[in-house]
């Protein structure tokens, strides 16, 4: 169940990946701080002011798995601190996760399980449309790593540890500031590509996920985005 939670967590963040990150030895990495890298990312996707105007966000992604269409939805209610994520296969909900009122649960394969405190705190991070804007205020610890290349593009490496001790490596383009990839022990590798503008904000239209849970890499595409739409309370039941 824990692996499933963080697998979905990765898809909720949104990628085309499957490149191996290698230390970039051709030159000394520019002197950048984690804050500078994150500020450049926020500015690249639309700016902090515009991002903070997002009160609700619905993202729907689609993928093909062994000939079947899989739809993954993430609904964020920033104002009321609510989150819903679900996976639908052949029209049937096979997994659903809900966070609200500082509690949460996951249902899968007919079983319902309350989220453990560390799982809840991690998922609460993803209530934000772009959690990177809030890393510092959430108390995440960060440090820079060596520059690397992702699919031939030079990238800054940011080592991030959240409040529950979950570590990740996140890679941001030196040229554009955009996030190219993230790697965690549980979720695996998640890559982001094909950024396109929607209402003044850049979203990655392709997300690719590779980890030990998946029999083959999962390549998803973003098929629907709804910003600041009224949300039905039944979504969070």
**Shape estimate:** globular
Average pLDDT, rounded to a whole number, is 87
Number of strands: 15
Structural class: alpha+beta
Quickly name the level 1 CATH class: Mainly Beta
> At CATH's second level, what is the architecture?
Clam
The count of helical stretches stands at 4
Give start-end ranges of low-pLDDT stretches.
Answer: 1-26
Radius of gyration, rounded?
17 Å
- The proportion of residues forming helix, as a percent range, comes to 10-25%
Number of domains: 1
CATH level 4 superfamily: Lipoprotein localisation LolA/LolB/LppX
CATH topology term: outer membrane lipoprotein receptor (LolB), chain A
Quote the distance from N terminus to C terminus.
20 Å
For the biggest sheet, the summary is:
15 strands, antiparallel
Strand/helix succession: HEHHEEEEEEHEEEEEEEE
Name the beta content range: over 45%
């Amino acid at each position: 169940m824990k692996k499933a939670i963080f697998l979905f967590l990765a898809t909720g963040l949104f990628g085309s990946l499957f490149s191996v990150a290698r230390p970039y030895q051709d030159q000394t990495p520019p002197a950048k701080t984690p804050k500078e890298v994150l500020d450049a990312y926020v500015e690249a996707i639309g700016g902090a002011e515009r991002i903070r105007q997002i009160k609700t966000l619905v993202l729907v992604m689609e993928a093909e798995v062994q000939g079947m269409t899989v739809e993954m939805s993430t609904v964020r209610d920033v104002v009321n601190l609510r989150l819903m994520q679900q996976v639908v296969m052949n029209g049937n909900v096979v997994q659903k996760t809900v966070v609200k009122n500082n509690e949460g649960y996951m249902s899968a394969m007919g079983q319902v399980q309350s989220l453990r405190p560390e799982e809840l705190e991690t998922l609460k991070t993803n209530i934000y449309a772009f959690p990177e804007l809030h890393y510092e205020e959430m108390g995440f610890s960060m440090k820079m790593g060596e520059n690397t290349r992702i699919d031939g593009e030079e990238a800054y490496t940011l080592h991030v540890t959240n409040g529950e001790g979950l570590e990740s490596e996140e890679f941001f383009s030196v040229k554009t500031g955009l996030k190219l990839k993230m790697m965690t022990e549980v979720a695996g590798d998640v890559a982001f590509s094909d950024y396109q503008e929607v209402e003044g904000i850049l979203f990655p239209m392709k997300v690719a996920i590779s980890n030990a849970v998946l029999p083959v890499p999962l390549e998803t595409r973003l098929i629907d985005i709804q910003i600041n739409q009224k949300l039905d309370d039944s979504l969070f039941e």
